[in-house]
Amino acid sequence: TPEKPKNFIRQIIDRDLAEGKHQQVATRFPPEPNGYLHVGHAKSICLNFGVAQDYQGTCNLRFDDTNPAKEEAAYAQAIEEDVRWLGFNWNGEIRHASDYFEQLFDYACELIEKGLAYVDELTPEQIREYRGTFEIPGKNSPHRERSAAENLSLFKRMRAGEFADGAMCLRAKIDMQSPNINMRDPVIYRIKHQDHHRTGDAWCIYPMYDFTHCISDALEGITHSLCTLEFEDHRPLYDWVLDNISIECHPQQIEFSRLNLEHTVTSKRKLNQLVTDGHVDGWDDPRMPTISGMRRRGFTAAAIRDMCDRVGVTKKVNTTEMGVLENCVREDLDRHAQRAMAVLDPIKVIITNYPEDQVEELSAPNHPQHDMGTRTLFMTREVYIDRADFREEANKKYKRLVLGKEVRLRNSYVIQANEVVKDDAGNITEIHCTYDPETLGKNPEGRKPKGVIHWVSVSHSLPAEIRLYDRLFNIPNPGSEADFVHAINQESLTVLTNARVEKSLQNVAPETRFQFEREGYFCSDRYDCKEDRLVFNRTVTLRDSWAK
Ligand code: ATP
Ligand code: MG
Ligand code: MG
After folding, report:
1. Distance, CA 71 to ligand 3 centroid (Å)?
2. What number does the ligand 1 atom closest to the CA of 260 have?
3. Which residue's alpha carbon is at the smallest distance from atom 22 of ligand 1?
4. Is 190 part of the annotated catalytic residue set?
């Protein structure tokens, strides 16, 4: 197969290496620990760590932890676990923007001393008003022309905790008339009397993202700082800060488009709302587009990486269909998941000519094409089939069990339905069949039953809870709704409590993936599946049957 053309970022890297601008590539993945990672972050992770891998460079995991109000150590831990699970590892110790607080403070002082930053006392509302808009140029703060000495003294007193939140801030002195609003004297430090999950009460002033990020990159010797498109307008500020402080390294910021996925949201704020308001059962609910949610649902890391690869890296804004992700999952599981039988909605079949106490051990392959070993199925007089696999009458298109007709039990015999038993309400409670003992592994004489259905033995099967998941939102782009909560699919979870699974699943380990034949791909629940209570999550159906 011909090699795929390299994405534009890899082309830039190739050129930089060829020109000798760098000897080695260094990237970073910089999440803010204010929520769990989602499928969009997976794209950034695959890009940053993938580049480092392929160019024998390095990639740092750096927590962008400058906003103590929203950040927690528990989020940081979950992020670490998710990056590892996705199959990546970082260079050396985990980094934190908060590791650099002291250096960041010194660089801020340097800007002040150079007359490039000042302490402002406008209120946050006034700052907004003075900043102007795209049409209206900004105007200078009355505090803009303080002396460096006065600014330095005030900034140090800010750090010492002498002033209340919002009373003052430090601003870069750039250009209030700039057509780029980010350059209109951006705030680079604010006062926040709030403990930080790593630095405790050491600081009551915290640096802003635009000031922190570029310096953190430079301190780590990052060569290519890859970020999403919304930071394009921040690049002049990224460069301005690094150009005006005494630091050698000047990483190149390159922007790419975010990953958006249909039928879900990829904003931490919205995902947080789903969790907080109880629309889902936690950040790792299998319906969530979080990495931990997708993992719990049964998606593989390889499938998520494959999807990121197929989506590619460009500057084009677009939204990926859920089907792309689901097809990656199907392909991976079709190849790697072993087969098993589960009856989701059981109805009892009594095979009247099968000896009452007989139990036959039948061998079934774990995979139809690849050698993944075999397992034992138990054939008995009473078996369960799915209620949807039987009809009293049906036309020729229905290739399952019909009264008076034959069908094959997968990996077992051909049976024929002879009569049904019904309860008072008219519901079928039993189907009485006969089997043809000559049909194990071969067709019956002179006829060829069309259908094959799955089944389990009544006595040699186990009860299981099966959770069927569907898309969390009814519409392709819930994020664009006035209130995305209204677009939640109320039928996104169906719990089946009467299901039966074959006995080979008795001691299944958590997070084991299966194709339940004819039903779909399933995964034993990471937390709830125990020896005495089997729980399986449907990862994805066998085919894309979702009605748009
Ligand atoms: P959110 O908007 O969900 O809060 P964020 O960008 O604020 O996301 P961060 O924790 O700051 O979240 O993101 C860490 C990195 O992941 C950043 O470099 C960011 O650009 C990248 N990233 C976040 N969302 C996406 C996405 N949908 N597609 C690609 N990259 C993303
Ligand atoms: Mg961010
Ligand atoms: Mg954010």
Report:
1. 11
2. 27
3. 41
4. no
Which residue in 311, 280, 309, 284 sits closest to 299, CA to CA?
284
The CA–CA distances, whole Å, from 115 to 111, 145, 184, 223, 234 equal 6, 9, 15, 29, 21
Residue located via tokens 């001691």: 507
Q: Do domains 23-256 and 344-454 have the same CATH topology?
A: no
CA dist., res. 249 & res. 217, Å (int): 9
Q: Kindly state the tokens that stand for 276.
A: 């907080």
- Residue found by looking up tokens 């794209």 in the block: 43
Residues 6+ positions from 75 with CB-CB distance below 8 Å = 33, 34, 35, 36
Predicted model pTM: 0.96
Closest ligand 1 atom to residue 271 Cα is: 3
CA of 382 to the centre of ligand 2 (A): 59
Q: What is the CATH number of domain 344-454?
A: 2.40.240.10
Task: Determine which one of 258, 295, 375, 381 is catalytic.
Answer: 258
Distance CA 283, CA 210 (A): 28
| CA distance linking residue 4 with residue 9, whole number of Å | 14
Percent residues over pLDDT 90 in the chain: 95
Tell me the best of 27, 28, 34, 44 to mutate to test the pocket of ligand 1, counting ligand atoms within 8 Å of each CB and taking the most: 44
Task: Please check whether residue 421 is in contact with residue 432, taking contact to mean a CB–CB distance below 8 angstroms.
Answer: yes
In terms of CATH, what superfamily is 268-339+464-540?
A: Ribosomal Protein L25; Chain P (2.40.240.10)
What ipTM, to 2 d.p.? 0.95
Known catalytic residue at 32: yes
* 3-class secondary structure, 519: coil
Each domain of the chain, given as residue ranges in start order, spans 23-256, 268-339+464-540, 344-454
Instruction: Please identify, by atom number, the ligand 1 atom nearest to the C-alpha of residue 228.
Output: 20
List of E strands, 380-413: 382-386, 390-391, 401-402, 406-409
- Residue 188 CA to residue 247 CA, distance in Å, equals 18
Q: How close is the Cα of 35 to the center of ligand 3, in Å?
A: 9
What is the CA(210)–ligand 1 centre distance, in A?
15
pLDDT, average across residues 475-491: 96
Pairing of strands 58-63, 95-96: parallel
Looking at ligand 1, which residue's alpha carbon is closest to its atom 15?
31
Helices (H), 160-224: 209-219
* Residues 294-338 pLDDT 10s: 999 999 999 999 999 999 999 999 999 999 999 999 999 999 999
Nearest CA to ligand 1 atom 9: 31
CATH code for the domain defined by 23-256: 3.40.50.620
Could you identify the atom of ligand 1 that is nearest to the CA of residue 37? 10
Pocket of ligand 1 (CB under 6 A): 30-32, 40-41, 43-44, 64, 227-228, 258-259, 266-268
* pLDDT tens per residue across span 436-449: 999 998 888 888 88
For 124-143, how does the pLDDT look when each residue is reduced to its tens digit (9 = 90+)? 999 999 999 999 999 999 99
